[in-house]
Amino acid sequence: MFSKLKQKLYFPIAWYFRFFAVIKLNRWKPKIIVITGSSGKTTLLHLVESQLGDIARYSHHANSSYGIPFDILGFKRQDLTINEWIGLFLLAPFKFFNTTPKEKIYVVETDCDRTGEGKFLAEFLKPDIVIWTNVSRTHAAGFDRSVSDQSTVEETIAFEFGHFIRNAKEMVIFNIDNELISNQLSENSQYRIISVSKKDLKNYQVSIHGTEYQIENKIYKFPYLLPENVYYSLASCLDLCKYLKIEIDDKFSRFIVPPGRNSIFKGIKNTTIIDSSYNANYDSMEQILTMVDQIRSNDKWLIISDMLEQGQGEKDQHEKVARLLLDINANRIIVMGPRSMKYIYPILKNHLSKNVILEQFIQPRQVLDYLRKEISGSEMLFFKGSRFLEGVIEHLLADKNDINKLCRREKIWKIRRKKWDL
């Protein structure tokens, strides 16, 4: 009952905050650069920020119909709890009087969690430039009711994201290798089109020490683990800089990988932790597991958790992950969560090599207890999925100062992890 009420009130309440945000946005008048897509948006935002620096303002931790108006109005939410809402409602009418930011460029990350969100945000922001790199089944549950007999979930999601380019005024940078994106482009568009294709990626290498991309005759090195498809974000960032006539820092020296996106930490007992716990859908699972498969380790453990909000395709998506795992080089695979146990574990149990140790758990605390007991030293522990894996990682870090580098540090998430005995 409460969930249905939240769904009905989602956009009416969002309109309230958007009304005041529009007033402030019209006073500010920045060039608006929208970064959108099903995944990888925050990494691309960080890549762009590493190049544009302080000439632009960035919508960090804000990408929704609520988050973006809050960011424009200057709200800094601290704990994401219900008690904050009263203050937000009362302060909103006064926030648009505040001084507008000095930056003349606004780089904003936008997501589409449900039908109508792309239209809501695109008509609100009216972007000058749009960068769109991918489409997949992230938040697919929010689109199930909108899928017609003539379209797939992926096509419905792509149409929603397509509102951003249909409202673009100046330029669109897009992944031409993705047919779902290409189909949303209009032949009669007034904006300039720049396409990004993987045919321009000449070489890709990844190891525990970092990642290299060769684009034409230039090599870009990062001290982070980045999947091959981050190439689309890298190339899009470079194209944006060229268009804006920004001098490019080839070393991307100011780039910092966002929390929960393949961060590397030292763990207890001399283990190496790869933290990809921020979120998961099949496309990101495929990209990240393919990357991890290329990293050499004498004892590689995969801790895989549920993919949430997959809607009616939940079974199919998890079974695809299971078949993907069958070909990944690992010493142990640990699956966690009701969906992973129901759909992934049976396939692995019947077809996984007998040389690979397989375990399943329903709760994150059970995974933590198992890892503490079983690791002997020097293992590489790779975490991917939802359901509080960051809470498991938190207790395995060698340096407790690294806890602040994990995702979901807000008070509401601490409360939820505590309920799960984390």
Give a quick summary of the entry.
With 422 residues, the protein is of the alpha/beta class.
Looking at CATH, which topology of the largest domain would you report? UDP-N-acetylmuramoyl-L-alanine:D-glutamate ligase
Spatial shape = globular
Spans of at least 5 consecutive residues with low confidence: none
CATH architecture verdict of the largest domain: 3-Layer(aba) Sandwich
Radius of gyration: 22 Å
Order of helices and strands: HEHEHHEHEHEHEEEEHEEHEHEHEHEHH
In whole angstroms, how far apart are the ends?
29 Å
Q: Which structural class should the secondary elements be placed in?
A: alpha/beta
CATH fourth-tier homologous superfamily of the largest domain? Mur-like, catalytic domain
Average of per-residue pLDDT values: 92
Number of H/I helices = 14
Task: Please report the first level of CATH classification, the CATH class of the largest domain.
Answer: Alpha Beta
Total domain count: 2
Largest sheet: 6 strands, parallel
In percent, how much strand structure appears in the residues? 15-25%
| Count of β-strands | 15
Sheet with most strands: strand arrangement: 2-3-1-4-5-6
Helix coverage percent: 25-40%
Question: Mind explaining what this structure looks like?
Answer:
This protein is α/β, with parallel strands linked by helices and 422 residues long. The protein has two domains: 238 residues, Mur-like, catalytic domain (UDP-N-acetylmuramoyl-L-alanine:D-glutamate ligase, 3-Layer(aba) Sandwich), CATH 3.40.1190; 157 residues, Mur ligase, C-terminal domain (Protein-Tyrosine Phosphatase, Chain A, Alpha-Beta Complex), CATH 3.90.190. It is built from 14 helices and 15 strands. The strands form three sheets. The protein has a six-stranded parallel β-sheet with strand order 2-3-1-4-5-6, with helices on both faces. Helix 1 packs parallel to helix 3, helix 1 packs parallel to helix 4 and helix 10 crosses helix 11. The longest helix is centred in the N-terminal third of the chain and has 27 residues. The model has no long low-confidence stretch (mean pLDDT 92).
